[in-house]
Design a protein that fits this description.
The structure is a homodimer of 451-residue chains. The first copy, chain A, is mostly helical and 451 residues long. Chain A folds into 3 domains: 2-131, MgtE N-terminal fold; 137-253, Roll (CBS-domain); 273-450, Tetracycline Repressor, domain 2 (Orthogonal Bundle), CATH 1.10.357.20. Chain A has helices spanning 2-12, 16-27, 31-40, 45-55, 58-66, 69-78, 81-89, 93-102, 105-111, 117-127, 134-137, 151-161, 186-191, 198-201, 215-225, 245-263, 278-305, 307-312, 320-343, 352-382, 385-415, 426-450; strands spanning 142-145, 167-174, 180-185, 209-210, 229-233, 239-244. A 3-stranded mixed β-sheet of chain A has the order 1-2-3. Chain A has a 3-stranded mixed β-sheet with strand order 4-5-6. In chain A, α8 (93-102) crosses α10, α15 (215-225) packs across α16 and α19 crosses α22 (426-450). At the A-B interface, α12, α13, α15, α16 and α17 of A face α12, α13, α15, α16 and α17 of B.
Chain lengths: 451, 451
């Protein structure tokens, strides 16, 4: 925060001495901190680029890369192409493509011809991969060597390659057609005899991911094998790029934010809480609430149909919140467990039968236990056996239904190639509310007709 | 899965040829895959240790380290101390302490004297840190050098240290009292002139974390600075250990699973879905549902108090699900956003005023918009202006209340040093249901008295 205040100080001062001091102070900071301070300060995009240019070394380039993509986009759209070139050229290839996809067409067309030919080719290659796949988050700046080298020549070559590579902690060994033959960690390279051949020390039992793999699955591969980077390959096992662990952490965090938003019925958004403009925040919340409000009218309609039953026994109304709430809670419990289990790869489609049996038993147990509790509460308080029986039977039936639906719907959605996380949200809960109320009145109607 | 079937094949066969073949097949697998296959197979703990012993090389040790802590615990408790020693001695120090904390006292007392003195000291040191802090997840196996070395001697020393260190990609430079002076990445070391002094090339602008820092915050540091490892220091900046990025990924995943469970009202548990025994799963769900059921009786009581109003206008009951649901949804929306924002470090306690103003405006906007929608639905369907006014006014008031409560409660809990994530769960939603119903009947009572 202090750093951001310093930047504001610099912006508001015309004293060249202040300028020099503040710029020197910035130079000594970590690029991530410089980026954070610039975002928090009052600097306009043009001033921001100006400050970065004055920092003027490798750190400015890194700080620009750490800015949010929205901020980078504004800078690029407002700055002149020549000034921005240095920043854009030095970004990581995957982030650069994301930025170039975000900016206006004319801005992109102004800067593209200035970028070196080799870099332009890399951009075109990365451009084609679909969002959310391994190909879209990989970088093309990895260390690659031929297998016929010795350890000492490999280290020599690596010293030359290193400044331009995102990581040199894994070295990828390929043939002339870029088929991936093996991997050597820098650690193993350092520890091997200088005269040893790379083909003798490389690990050939490779872990790689296909370019079309979902990035959530890629995150699972990292967490299972404790990797720092993973190679991305095409269907002929040719090396296309690598994904590094720092990108994976960002992916995991973004995915769980998205899941949280879905569960809490907010349309997904990327910005930080305070940075999201009020109208857009309103919109992403309003849409969902309106959909849910109309869905909840299902319950209203069901109750209107059952007005006669309600007239006959008004105290039925008192337990609607209990039946609705318990039913919704149980459904959400099982849905969330299954969704999370699927996300972590513990549950797959073929487990449907097992999940059904497990949740059938669980629903009966929970329904029996909670139904008995409710029976005693109603009976002791209202001295009404009929009401107590209705509430208890309704709890058993609705809990069973909600539990099974909650567990099986994520699997069903997966089968339909939809996102299972949708079910853990309030839309299903609202439909379950209506289902619960329908079951409740149906049971009341039947029991009152019999006795 | 095939690998697990192979292991079952091995267990069920008495043919020594089959044994040899399956063991050779296992030897060629990644340690993580061997561990996964062993967990999925029918192998008893004693058979599991037997199979690992036969694999007999470095991979067996690594595979043991990848087993779940429950499985490691059973192996350790059932195997003999002498056999288990090799596996325990080669675990990472932080995981080893977790395991030794988990096993029975007598098992621990049997194995501890067998462990080498230096390792025993490391265990004692790590033992003292509180769960959930940086100290509890750090490892003591890091590469450390003195600053007066040259690059070439540093590389020599590193070659000797490397086999025992968890990572050598950062080298920590300390003085004789272990005060952290600087960090050199292996990359920079490789790229520097062999004759350069470490003190000249080390980065002194250090990022480190105190041992008592919450691990969720540590994860935030990794994601902000794109680190592979971070040093953990005491209050005098003496180096205590390091945390590596693979542990951080596990931490992030465990924390979000815990948050999901909390939001969906399941008591937190660590096991995978199918591995959790049914009685314990029942228990972790039942407790919450029972608490929520009793909480929902609040709503019942409020409705019983208002029986007279309900008798006078029974159609009020029809809109209870709508008022309850919308109120709960809006509260969950704002609570989840704030909780997530706090977890990601975007919102802190000092932002309370800003959050209040923002959510006050948001509540009024949402309440106004949804209230008008409900007004027209009720009026068009039921032709009852009074009912329409009651429902609309109730929606406005309850949305405003739920929105503010949802946003401010996480901050209030944080101030009370409780976990803010508690508020995003269904307990608060159930209390909000009751609040919504109370407001609804209060408004109905007032409007019906006036007109």
């Amino acid at each position: 925060m202090t750093l951001a205040l310093n930047i504001n100080h610099l912006l508001n001062s015309i004293d060249p001495q202040v300028h020099r001091e503040e710029i020197v102070a910035l130079r000594n900071q970590h690029p991530s901190d410089i980026a954070e301070a610039l975002e928090e300060s009052d600097a306009q995009p043009s001033q921001l680029v100006e400050i970065l240019s004055q920092i003027g070394n490798h750190k400015a380039v890194e700080a620009f890369a750490q800015l949010s993509i929205e901020m980078q986009q504004t800078c690029l759209e407002e700055g002149n192409a020549q000034t921005m070139l240095r920043f854009v050229e030095n970004m990581e290839p995957d982030d650069r493509v994301d930025l170039l996809k975000a900016v206006d067409d004319d801005v992109r067309e102004a800067i593209m011809p200035l970028i070196a030919q080799a870099e332009r080719n890399a951009i075109r290659k990365l451009w084609q991969y679909e969002e959310g796949t391994a190909g879209a988050v990989m970088t093309t700046e990895y260390a690659m060597l031929a297998q016929n080298l010795t350890v000492s020549t490999a280290l020599e070559k690596l010293r030359l390659q290193a400044p331009n590579k995102e990581t040199i902690y894994y070295i990828y060994i390929t043939d002339s057609e870029r088929h991936l033959l093996g991997i050597i960690s820098l650690r193993d390279l350092i520890m091997s005899k200088p005269s040893a051949g790379l083909d003798a020390i490389m690990e050939t039992n490779l872990i790689s991911v296909p370019h079309e793999m979902d990035i959530e699955k890629v995150a699972g591969v990292f967490s299972k094998y404790d990797l720092l980077a993973v190679p991305v390959v095409d269907k002929d096992k040719r090396l296309l790029g690598i994904i590094t662990v720092d990108d994976v952490i960002d992916i995991i965090e973004a995915e769980s934010t998205e899941d949280f938003q879905r569960i809490s019925a907010v349309l997904p958004f990327d910005e930080e809480y305070f940075k999201r403009p009020l109208p857009r925040l309103f919109w992403s919340r309003f849409i969902w609430l309106a959909v849910l409000l109309f869905t909840s009218l299902l319950s209203t309609t069901i109750m209107e149909w059952n007005a006669a039953v309600l007239n006959q026994m008004m105290s039925l109304a008192f337990f609607i919140p209990m039946v609705m709430g318990t039913c919704g809670n149980a459904g959400t419990q099982s849905a969330t467990m299954i969704v999370r289990g699927m996300a972590l790869g513990e549950i797959s489609l073929k487990d449907m039968g097992r999940v059904f049996r497990r949740e059938l038993v669980m629903g009966l147990l929970l329904g029996g236990a909670l139904g008995s509790m409710a029976y005693f509460r109603v009976f002791l308080q209202d001295q009404d056996i009929m009401l107590a029986c209705i509430v208890a039977a309704a709890l058993l039936a609705t809990l069973l239904a909600a539990n099974l639906l909650g567990a099986l719907m994520p699997l069903a959605l997966k089968k339909l190639k939809l996102d299972p996380a949708l079910t853990a949200g309030p839309f299903i809960a609202t439909i379950m509310d209506a289902l619960g109320i329908a079951i409740y009145f149906q049971i009341a109607f039947s029991l009152m007709a019999i006795f």
